[in-house]
């Protein structure tokens, strides 16, 4: 059995309930938090910035990822800059493609140049990983959120990508 306390594995709680974040913060196995606009909408969040500030107050410096909500690449950049300004413990979630299928590789590259920590999300293929590696800077942290479960749901083995 894996001893999470002694491993490099970090568990992040995913959700958009302030009460859920408060409960998760009490669990010593939870090392960080993440949310997204869909979860926020489902939880009734109507003011993104106020929700973010309340969550930041609760988590007290733990890492957290907040996602952009625009589908336009220029607006995503502007939103990422604003979101990153909320705190030093924030990584900005950027989906690997927008809903039109356009890659966000160059956007992520620009944000990395601006020293913004990105959490590139909704990654499903080795091509996605390679695209992002091509714009990485070894001095700037980056999180790659590979959706292994969804890859497996398609009948493919996610382990070669992982």
Give the overall pLDDT as a whole number.
Answer: 89
Spatial gap, N to C terminus: 20 Å
Share of residues in strands: 15-25%
Q: What is the radius of gyration computed over CA atoms, rounded to a whole number of angstroms?
A: 16 Å
Helix content range: 25-40%
Q: Element order, helices and strands? A: EHEHHEHEHEHEH
**What's the number of extended β-strand segments?**
6
Largest sheet entry = 6 strands, parallel
Extract low-pLDDT stretches: none
Principal-axis shape equals globular
Number of helices: 7
In what order do the strands lie side by side in the largest sheet? 1-2-3-4-5-6
* Class of secondary structure makeup: alpha/beta
Oligomer: single chain
What does the model show?
Helix 1 (18-25) runs parallel beside helix 3. The longest helix has 12 residues, at 48-59. The chain starts with 10 loop residues before the first strand and ends in a 9-residue tail after the last helix. By secondary structure, it is of the alpha/beta class. Strands 1-2-3-4-5-6 form a 6-stranded parallel beta sheet. The protein has 7 helices and 6 strands, in the order βαβααβαβαβαβα. It has helices spanning 18-25, 37-42, 48-59, 73-84, 105-113, 126-133, 148-153, and strands at residues 11-14, 30-34, 64-67, 90-95, 118-123, 142-146. Helices cover 38% and strands 19% of the residues. Strand 4, helix 5 (105-113) and strand 5 (118-123) form a beta-alpha-beta unit.
